[in-house]
Design goal:
Blueprint (H helix, E strand, L loop, with lengths): L2 H26 L5 H28 L3 H39 L1
Helix pairs in contact: 1-3, 2-3
């Protein structure tokens, strides 16, 4: 893979992750089922745990301080993005449950 292909692959990955976050948000915006809400939270938690394991394994495979620092920055930014998505989805779920409760 050339450098341009690698950059394109990372750009595609970034766009795909943004798209996925938007789809998650859209899909669960109006959810009024606690079971579905719990499923979303569980899935996102598992994604976070898998990402943490992935970045830890990268960190352990190299002794190069620059690679380790880069891995830690990537892990931190991924964690921040995932946490933001979780907050947004949780906020949407909370709004949906308030609407359902007030309609009863």
């Amino acid at each position: 893979m050339t450098d341009a292909n690698t950059r394109e692959a990372w750009d595609r990955f970034q766009a795909d992750v943004k798209s996925m976050a938007g789809e998650l948000r859209r899909h669960y915006e109006g959810v009024d089922d606690e079971k579905k809400a719990a499923e979303v939270r569980r899935s996102l938690r598992q994604l976070g745990e898998a990402a943490e394991a992935f970045f830890e394994s990268l960190d352990k495979t190299t002794r190069d301080p620059e690679v380790r620092a880069s891995t830690k920055r990537a892990a931190k930014s991924f964690g921040s993005a995932l946490a933001g998505t979780l907050r947004e989805v949780s906020g949407e779920l909370e709004k949906a449950f308030k609407k359902t409760d007030s309609a009863k």
